[in-house]
Amino acid sequence: MAYFKISCFNLKVFCKFFFVFWIVIKMHLVTGKSRVETTCQTCRDLVKNFNLGMEKTAKNHFGGGDTAWEEENLKSYARSETRLLEILESVCNDVSKESTCHAMVEENEELLESFWFNKHTELSSLETFLCIEKLKGKFISKQTKNI
Q1: Are the CB atoms for 138 and 39 separated by under 8 Å?
Q2: How many angstroms from the chain centroid is the CA of residue 10?
Q3: Residue 62 and residue 116: Cα distance in Å, rounded?
Q4: Nearest partner of 145 among 36, 8, 47, judged by Cα
Q5: How far is CA 97 from the centre of its chain?
Q6: Among 135, 137, 45, CA closest to 99
């Protein structure tokens, strides 16, 4: 009779452990999926805001008074690092996951610069370049890994 009580107790413990384990695994799968979805949406929002920044800064130029010197020494504003920085300053505005967006920009700054200086004329492909080819929809920042 004592063996039966111990055996039932072990079965109850095992069932509770299995149930908790199953819930933890299920929550991890759901959370992982939502992180990827959030990341993909954040990347798309970043690209949308980047393109809006391009439109807003399209008619801008270097400030100052010596246009001849600026054109000779600073070259074109349209492809300048100054313009890129102006665009990146506001690229995470109006994004639902602003902290994730800032982390994404910071961790992929070199990719954005590479795209800006090497593939600037192909701006319609920024989403493909950044979100699909480089990040492959799997970006999880160091900040979101700790959640």
Answers
A1: yes
A2: 47
A3: 18
A4: 36
A5: 9
A6: 45
Residue 102: both structure tokens together:
């800032």
Tokens of 19: 């149930």
8 A C-beta contact, residue 132 and residue 94: no
HSE-up of 124 (CA within 13 Å, CB side)?
A: 0
Cα distance between residue 105 and residue 85, in whole Å: 11
> What does the pLDDT average to over 18-26?
55
DSSP string, the chain: -HHHHHHHHHHHHHHHHHHHHHHHHHHHHHHHHHHHHHHHHHHHHHHHHHHHHHHHTTT----SS-HHHHHHHT--GGG-HHHHHHHHHTTTTT-TTHHHHHHHHHHTHHHHHHHHHHSGGGGGGHHIIIIIIISTT----HHHHT-
Handedness of CA 127, 133, 135, 137 (dihedral sign): positive
Evaluate if residue 69 carries a pLDDT over 80.
no
What is the model's pTM? 0.62
pLDDT at 82: 83
Amino acid identity for residue 43 in this structure:
C
Q: Which two tokens stand for residue 112?
A: 């954005």
